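ugh finaly. both done.
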Amino acid sequence: MEAKLYQIPLAFGALMQRGKELPSVNLGTSIAQNIFLIVSTKYNEHRFDAEYGCEIWERDFETIVSPLVWKDQINRSILKCVARYEPRLEGVTVNTEIEEEEYRHPSTGVRSIKKRVTANVRGTIKATGEQFTCAPKLFISPISLD
């Protein structure tokens, strides 16, 4: 019997209701959700495993002297963590892109320039042999304009 894969975040309200099923997802979505959690988690943030996460948050406000070196370090960090914490994938590659994007806070209207980091992760799903891709996007290093 195949294990059920649940949507993140968990719907705790549904969990407490008798007879109510939690929303489930397919294998590819489950893997993508886990990779997003890895990339968006700072080291030492996960209570039960200090190594779960990504180095990107250690470098959030760092001045990027060499984008190639910075991207290489982040690529290696993500690759290491995906290899360790996402055993459902094999042949994983990571290619990080950095772009600047203007962002306006919805409630305050304050404009800022943020670095948008896209972590393009590719691999093969071991159980099915299917090609897998996901590209979690994160905003880092705000610079306020107003």
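ok and the 2nd:
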Amino acid sequence: MNDSERTVNEYLTGLELGRVVFEPDGNHPPDFLVNGRIAVEARRLNENEIVGGGHRGLEVTSKPLHQAVLKALAASGPADSTQSWFVHYSVRRPLPPWKIIETYLKDAVAEFRAHADDPPKMLRLGRSIRLEFQRASRSHDTLLLLGGYSDCDEGGFLVTDVIRNLRLCIAEKTKKVSRVRHKYSEWWLVLEDRIGYGALDADDVQAVRAELGPIEGFARVVLVNPLRPTQGLEVWRESAV
């Protein structure tokens, strides 16, 4: 059971509708079965990028990129008598292949060190990555160290982001359960909300419902706050139509 599934499990257990069983049919949908009759699919609601004919979470690329930047900065070498510099990187997708990114970063660090007496304030690495440099108040172990980062594909208007990514998640799960839907009369989709974290108010929920419209195949679609797993917001319920 992953983190998102644990959050959903806590939410379902708190409803006290009956016994909650994880993966009742093994490694096949549904993820949970409640009271022997309600099939529940669980997933993380996260921000995604469109890739080819599908999508993937932004964290799929953001985490390895972060590690690549840290590795490149650690290789910048000692500050010596030169002042250390903080580096802030920003990223915009799509990203080039990882080998190209690693080469970009290595070349950027080498260029900065070669001009350490009069260093650049900013370097662009292709179309996707930008490095900005700010002088540190003292010398550190390395010439360059991470000062911060920003992901230009993250954030935006909360309700818009929730709606856009909900549509992706609903389509993904609808396709996944299509072959086994007949096994259970009622299906729910319960999502660990890593975008809004329970911040949607009543007007926001109404806006989400209005944009999504009727959802075929799921009796309920619920967003669960990972910080308070017993807190769930129903953005769709058949009986509410």
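summary for the 2nd one i guess: The chain has two domains: 3-47+156-240, 56-151.
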